[in-house]
Amino acid sequence: MTEPLLSVRDLKKHYPIRKGLFNRQVGAARAVDGISFDIEEGETLGLVGESGCGKSTAASSVIRLEEPTSGEVVFNGNGRGSASRNPDGTHPNDVTEFDDDELMQFRRGAQMIFQDPSSSFDPRMSVGSAVGELLKVHGMSDRHRRRAIVEDLLERVGLSASDFDRYPHEFSGGQKQRIALARALVLNPDLIIADEPVSALDVSIQAEILSLIDDLQEEFGLSLLFISHDMSVIRQICDRVAVMYLGEIVEIGPVEEIFTDPQHPYTEALLSSIPTPDPRASIGGIELKGTVPSPTNPPSGCRFHTRCHKVIQPDGVDIDQDDWRGLLNFREKVMTGEIDIEQVRENVAAGGNDPTDSEVRAEIRREFDISETVADPDLEETLSEAMNLLLDDNAEMAGEFLSDEITTPCAQTEPETTVHAPDHESACLRHEGRAAAEPNPADD
Amino acid sequence: MATEGSERFDQVDWSDLSRSGRFDLSINSIGMLLTTLPLALLAVYDTQFIGDRTPTFEFIGLDRTFEAVDFFFIFTLFLAFWYLVLPLYQNPRMTRYYWKEFRRNRPAVVSMVWLGIVFVGGIIGPLVMSAPQQELLVAYQPPVFTSVVESTPATCVGEVMNGRCHGTWEYPLGTTNAGRDVFTMIVYGMTISMQIAFITTTIVATIGITFGTLSAYSGGWVDEIMMRFVDIILSFPTFLMFLLILYIYGGGLGMFIVVFSLFAWGGTARYVRSKSLSISEEEFIKASRISGASTYQVIRGHVVPNVASSIITQLTLLIPGFLLFEAQLAFLGVGDSTVPSWGQLISAGRSDLSYAPWIVLAPGIVLFLTILAFNFLGDALLDALNPEAEAESE
To answer: Does residue B282 belong to the interface with chain A, where contact is any CB pair within 8 Å?
Structure first.
C-alpha cells in the first residue's frame, strides 16, 4: 500500500476558556477531539456533520491556520514522500512541527476554499491581484509572468482573462467561487481543503461548481478534503466520507457503503434527512431531538447518546425503543432542572379547569413520547415515583432518583472503533459484540 | 500578454524562485523615494548650510524661504500623490466605480470643486502672486461693485460718485486697514489651510493607523495598555497644553499643527483598532494567511487598505475642526500673527467691522464654505468608499 497523501492522527483542537482576574484556564471547548483519517492521492474525502460539530475547525487545524492542540498531520505531498519516522517517534513530514520554511513549502502543497464567497475576497483588490498575490508571496516578482499565469487559470475555471482587473463586487457568488478555486489552484497544490464551498450557492450553480471541481481534480490529480453538511453534495463528489459528531469521527467509509449500509445511528439520521424527489415516498426521517451538546462539556461515554434513537437499554430491560428514548430525555431534563412543573400545570390548565395530578402526568408522558404504561414494571414504578417527586416540587430529589434508576451503557462506556469492512469503520457500542475491533491498520 | 509563451500555473518550478520578491518596491514607493530624496537634501541644506535669514532659494536667485512646515507640507503632497492619486490612476475600474458612487451626491461634487479651487489656489497662488504689501494710502478700499462713504478709505482708488468711493478690479475684495489686498491674503490663507489639512491628516493617519493595527494585532495586555493610553490622549486638555507651550516657546503654525495633531489621533486609533479586529475575522484574511503571507504582509496588504478607506471619511471630518480651531485661536489673538491665515485676517478686521465689513466677511465666508465642503465631502466619501455594502444590498 502506498502511503497516503495526508494522514491525520488523533488531531485535537481545544479552545481554552479563561476567566477571572488572572485569566486562569477554567475549561476548554473541545472543538476537535481526536480525529484520524487518511487521504490518498487523487482521492476526495468528505467530512460531514451538523453545524458546530468541528468540521471547519478540523480543516483549519489540518492546514495550520490554527495551531492544533495535539495530534499529528503528516503531509506527504510536495515530493516529500517516502520519509520514515524519526527514532523519537516524530514524523519528518508532520505539518504541526514544520518550521517557517517548511510551512511556506506546505502552503504550496495545500490550499483552501472558503464557504462565503462574499467575504473571501478583499473588496479593494482586483481578483487578478488576489489570485496573483500567492505567486507574489512565494517569490514570483515578475508582474507580467504572474498576469499570464493568472489569466490562463481564470480561463480554466470558466471565466475570461479580461476578468483579471475586475473587482469582487462585480461577480456573482458562483463566479467568486470559481475565482476562489483559481486562487486555491494557482500554486499547484496536491491537496485542496474545501470548507462548504457550495453551501452558499443556488442548487443549479452548486452543480456547476461541483462538476468544475471534479474536472480540475481529474486533470491535475488533486486530493480533496470536502467539508459539507449536505449529504447529497457529499454523495455527488466524494470517494470516501467521514461522519463527524461533536469533535469526533463516528463513522468513516466508502461513500457507497455509507449510503447503502450506514452503521452508526447518527449516519442513519443524517441520511434520512436527504429529501427524496419521490412525492409519494413517506418521510421516514429520523428526527434528532435537541441540539448538539456543548463541546465544553461533552456527554460521557458515547457523545451521541443524548440524542441517539438507538440508545442501548441495559441488561434485563426490553421496552419500546421510543419509550426508552423518552425516559432518558425525561431523566436528562429533570436532572438539568429544565422541567418547570408549574409551566406544565399552566399548559394543561389552558385547556380547561384546574388540572388534576393525573392530567399533568399524562401531559409529561405526551411531551416525552412515553406511552401510557412502560412495558417494564420496574421502570414504570420509577417513572411514577419520579413524577410524584416532581409534583411535590422536589425536582432535585427526582433528578437524583432518576439518575440512579435509569442508566444506559452508552453513557458509561466510550465506544471503540469497529471495522465492518476494509475501509469502513464506525464507533458505536451496539457493534461491540459483533466484530472484535482490530487495531486500525493505519495506526501503526 | 504573456512574456514567456503561455506558462501554466502547474509548470512553475518553485525551487527556482527565490523569496527575494517580497522586498520588491512598487512603482509608487520608488516614485516616493525619488521625489522625497531631493526634498530631504534641500531641507538639510536649508538647516545646515545657510543662515537662518538667508532665503532657501537664494542659490538660484529666488527670494523664497522654506520653513519646516513648508518642507513637511511638500512631503505630504508627495505622499498623497504617490499613494492616493496614482493608485486611482492605476486602478481605473475602481476609480470609475468610486466616481459613479460619488457623483450621485451633488453637494459633494460642488464641494470637491470648491476644495479643488482652494487647493490649487493654495499651491499656485503664492508662486504667481507677490505677498500683500502694507500700503497705508490704499487702506479700506471697498470690494468691486460696492461702495463706501468717501471718507472711509484714505484715498479712493476707484471713482468717486455722489460722495461714495466705488471698488475696483485692482482690489477685487477690498483692502485691509493696512492697505493689504484682501483677495491676495485669502489666497495666501488657502496655503495655510491646505498645510493644516494635509499635515494634520498625515500625522493623525500615520499614528492612528499604526497604533490601532498594532493594538488590534498584539491583543492581551499590550492591547489593554495601548487603549488606556488612547483614553489619556482623548481626555488630555490639548488647549491648555498649547497655551503652555505658547508661553514657553512661542507658537508658530508648525507648533499649532504638531500639538493639535499629536493629541487628535485617539479617536482614529480606536476606530482603526475595532475596524482591524473585524476585518481580521474575514475569510479573505484567512485566505491570505494560508497563502503563506507573513503577518506584516497581511496587515500591509489587506488590513491597512481596508481600514484606510474607512478612516478617510473620519479624517475628512477632522480637518474642519482644525481649520476652525486655528481661526478661533487667531481671532482670540493666541497664535502667530505673522501667519497669513484666514483667522488672522478675520482677527485683523474685527475692529473695523462697522465701516469695513468686507475684511471680516470675505475670509469668513471662504472659511465657512471650506468647512462646509469638507463636511459634505466626508459624508459622500463614506457612501462611495463602501463597495461591499453596495454588493450586499443588491
So the answer is: yes
- Chain B: closest CA distance from residue A132 (Å): 10
For residue range B80-131, list pLDDT tens digits in order: 999 889 988 988 888 888 898 889 889 999 999 999 999 999 999 888 888 8
Cα–Cα separations (whole angstroms), residue B340 to A174, B126, B129:
59, 11, 14
pLDDT band at B216 (very low <50, low <70, confident <90, very high): very high
Q: Please state the φ and ψ torsions of residue A396, each to the nearest 5 degrees.
A: -65, -50
How is residue B63 written as a grid cell?
A: 527670494
Give the span between the Cα atoms of B303 and B272, in whole angstroms.
10
> Are B6 and A152 in contact (CB < 8 Å)?
yes
Q: Tell whether A59 is within 8 A of chain B (Cβ).
A: no
Grid coordinates representing A254?
A: 466508502
Mean pLDDT over all residues of chain B? 85
Is the Cβ of B231 closer than 8 Å to some Cβ of chain A?
A: no
User: Closest Cα partner for A314 from A397, A436, A404, A416?
Assistant: A404
- Whole-number Å distance between alpha carbons of B370 and B323: 9
Q: Do B380 and B203 contact (CB within 8 A), yes or no?
A: no
Residue in B closest to A114 by C-alpha: B283
* Domains of chain B, CATH where assigned: 104-131+181-388 (1.10.3720.10), 133-180 (no CATH)
- Express each pLDDT in A256-289 by its tens digit: 999 988 889 899 888 887 777 777 765 566 777 7
> Is pLDDT at A425 greater than 60 in this prediction?
yes
Alpha helices by DSSP H, A90-246: 100-109, 127-137, 143-156, 173-185, 203-220, 231-237
pLDDT tens digits, one per residue of B354-389: 888 888 999 999 999 999 999 999 888 888 876 555
ipTM: 0.82
| Residue with cell string 531631493 | B38
Which single residue is written with the C-alpha cell 469503520?
Answer: A425
Q: Identify the structural domains of chain A with CATH numbers, from first to last.
A: 6-18+26-124+167-272 (3.40.50.300), 321-407 (no CATH)
